[in-house]
Amino acid sequence: MALHHRTLAFAYRALASFLILLGIARVAGLWSATPTWSSFLYYTVLSNVLCLVWMVWSAIVTVRDAEAKGWYGYSTPSARGEAAVMEAITVTMLIYLFVLAPALFTQPGAYQPFTLTDNLVTSSRRCS
Fold first, then answer.
1. pLDDT at 92 > cutoff 70
2. Model-wide pTM > 0.85
């Protein structure tokens, strides 16, 4: 997302980073007594970690550019990097929406599609 004012770009990237981190933490159960570390083996979680890293890096570049050039202008680390992250998270979104979430799909336990955790994790598909 290209915002011409770096203050708004930084606020967006910081908020998106927080929400992505919250989704990853909920999926992995990091606030429970027994976190599910094996969840980091799944492409869904890994693509969200990639998105988190990209958003944090974008926020850092925004602040660095703001200090060097002022708070008015564009800040993006790499268009190719952004495209790669968007491709990874788009594949995650499409697989989730068309393969994992349909009513015919069942998982062991009390899985419910489109919960807060699912929405936080799949909302990072707009991470750039």
1. yes
2. no
**33 vs 38: CA distance, rounded Å:** 15
Q: Contact, 10 vs 76, CB < 8 A?
A: no
Upper half-sphere CA count for residue 18 (Cβ side, 13 Å): 6
Euclidean distance between CA atoms 101 and 5, whole angstroms: 37
CB atoms within 10 A of CB 43: 11
Closest CA to 99 of 87, 113, 120: 113
CB atoms within 10 A of CB 62: 26
| CA-CA-CA-CA dihedral for 121, 54, 99, 38, to nearest 10 | -70
Helices then strands, counting H and E runs in the chain, come out as 4, 0
